[in-house]
From TrEMBL:
Top-level taxon of the source organism: Bacteria
MF GO annotations: [acyl-carrier-protein] S-malonyltransferase activity
Taxonomy of the source species: Bacteria, Pseudomonadati, Pseudomonadota, Alphaproteobacteria, Hyphomicrobiales
Name of the featured protein: [acyl-carrier-protein] S-malonyltransferase
InterPro entries in the record: Ac_transferase_dom_sf, Acyl_transferase_dom, Acyl_Trfase/lysoPLipase, Mal-CoA-ACP_Trans/PKS_FabD, Malonyl_transacylase_ACP-bd
Coiled coil keyword on record: no
Entry keywords, A to Z: Transferase
GO biological process annotation, one example: fatty acid biosynthetic process
CC annotations in GO: cytosol
Residue ranges annotated for the Malonyl-CoA:ACP transacylase (MAT) domain, each copy included: 6-302
Keyword DNA damage appears in the UniProt entry: no
SUPFAM superfamilies (UniProt xref): FabD/lysophospholipase-like (SSF52151), Probable ACP-binding domain of malonyl-CoA ACP transacylase (SSF55048)
Alphabetized Pfam families for the sequence: Acyl_transf_1 (PF00698)
């Protein structure tokens, strides 16, 4: 058995996101490390309070990493696995793979968000487009001075730019046959050249890290930028910085999981968007999101099934 561990990006935060891990003894250190980064508020309390605070860029990135690391700690999985993370989940994957200490992952999540906020202008965002292939969408984005941010599948993309330009792009995409073309509730043009300064700032932060030697049996680490396996840490860290301002190829990450032979897929983090995409990309695998279970023991039992 081989398991693909997928780590969520932002967007799915909700009041019950820590329901399965909140009281697990092995997850307490992760919650404790996140609390001072959230102004002294426990991430579990912040989540339960709901509202807009969950989706602020800095808090959202910290919460997503907290969710992934807490769930991984609680599971205590030690089988054959590969791990890939979507956007901020790419950073959390380095913690799951044992390459960066959990406390450092959470601190870096805060610094990443701060760098992105500093580089972002007002009036920018992202749009999700499904039902167009790359070439026509690329031409459409160029015409509206927008940029391809994420490739989720051959006909599913995220585009970034000014919100007024994205609105016009969505209307034109719909007229061109797109099944879905909507502005996303995001005000940061992530994974576009508009955030080049944020990549530079985050690269500087990463240069101060002390990397860890991954323990025996740690999951294989895949770059969330292009789906390649990380063998040389220095190359992987550069990609971790670059993905802030470059198009990320999530479809390639899912292909890497398929080539690894993953017959089960588990999404850790808020929401189930990655699990939904994985069901299409890995049709022969059994796929679940953590939140589809009632308990951590239920997840462990599922993973232990022959």
């Amino acid at each position: 058995m081989s398991v693909a561990i997928l780590l969520s990006g932002q967007g799915g935060q909700h009041p019950g996101m820590f329901d399965l891990t909140a009281d697990h003894p092995d997850a307490q250190a992760v919650f404790s490390a996140a609390t001072p980064l959230l102004g002294g508020t426990d991430p579990r309390d912040l989540a339960r309070s709901g509202g807009d605070a969950l989706h602020a860029n800095r808090a959202g990135q910290i919460l997503c990493c907290t969710a992934a690391l807490a769930a991984w700690r609680a599971l205590g999985f030690s089988g054959r696995a590969i791990v890939a993370g979507y956007s901020i989940g790419d950073l959390a994957a380095w913690g799951v793979a044992g390459r960066i200490a959990e406390a450092d992952i959470l601190s870096l999540a805060a610094r990443r968000a701060e760098a992105m906020d500093a580089a972002s202008g007002v009036g920018f965002g992202l749009a999700g487009i499904r039902g167009l292939t790359l070439d026509p969408l690329d031409a459409l984005a160029e015409r509206h001075d927008c940029h391809l941010a994420i490739r989720n599948a051959p006909d599913s993309f995220v585009v970034g730019g000014r919100r007024d330009a994205l609105d016009a792009l969505c209307r034109e995409a719909t007229a061109a046959g797109a099944q879905r073309a909507i502005l996303l509730p995001v005000h940061t043009p992530s994974h576009t050249p508009l955030l080049a300064e944020a990549s530079d700032a985050f690269r500087t932060a990463l240069a101060t890290l002390t990397l860890r030697r991954p323990p025996a049996g740690a999951p294989r680490l895949v770059s969330g930028l292009d789906g390649t396996t990380i063998f040389r840490p220095e190359d992987g860290l550069d990609k971790l910085a670059r993905q802030i301002s470059h198009t990320i190829d999530w479809a390639a990450c899912l292909e890497a999981c398929r080539e690894y032979g993953a017959d089960r897929v588990l999404e850790l983090g808020p929401g189930h968007a990655l699990a939904t995409m994985a069901r299409t990309a890995l049709p022969d695998a059994r796929v679940h999101a953590l939140e589809e279970f009632r308990s951590i023991s239920g997840v462990a039992d599922w993973l232990a099934q022959p």
